[in-house]
């Protein structure tokens, strides 16, 4: 009994030590800057001078009166929805295609995953060229990035192309953990492949859905790189996201306090949304 407790304590200590470097990096580069930004959001400040005027919660109240907020939040939510659905659907389909272990599937997995290792800026520049030159030369279609109605789906397509391979890897790991005995029992009972997928596979890979949906949701709500590199927020403000609006307020409009307030509200809202979504998906998970 005592030996088991010692072994358990050693394992917990080992796990903590493995997590410690990541926790330190997160604290230094994410948590501390975020906490430092909270006092700044209470001031009217241009971002570089020594002059600051305390305004209390005025910056936060201004967010709800800002006529531009509705548009940038709408752009962000629309982009995130397309990005979330596209990455998970394509990632799952790719995972089903290459889930079996073989040399060919190993090569295909590498090919499908390769876009994920590219930078967001490079991916955006690549697709900017494809939309503007390749599509027009082959199909006579003008760039989607210059069309108010198609710019957000076009940028979402870039993000989906880049990150679907990441979702695929998580789905493959989850699919390979489903016991074959369940499928064999289903075949004996006369279940079709479609019924087996929806009644066996889907319930058992909910943890993979939880991981992918929460990650893609967070990445989508914080979107900045794709839009900045591909369109700069245009045409007009049709593709401007909350992340871009924060950037412009701090570095372009020199209204750093207001930009910080928007960023804190975005972080708080995203945290609440993530917790609610994760809690809901956790309740749907099934023990194997």
Automatic annotation (TrEMBL):
Provide the alphabetized UniProt keywords: Cell membrane, Membrane, Transmembrane, Transmembrane helix, Transport
State what protein this is by name. Answer: Sugar ABC transporter permease
Q: ABC transmembrane type-1 domain: which residues?
A: 73-277
Q: How does it sit in the membrane?
A: Multi-pass membrane protein
**Subcellular localization, per the record?**
Cell membrane
Q: Which SUPFAM superfamilies match?
A: MetI-like
Which species is listed as the source? Answer: Blautia ammoniilytica
In terms of PROSITE patterns, this protein maps to: ABC_TM1
Q: Which Pfam families match?
A: BPD_transp_1
Signal peptide limits: none
Transmembrane segments in this chain: where?
Answer: 12-35, 77-98, 110-131, 151-175, 196-219, 261-281
Q: What is its main location?
A: membrane
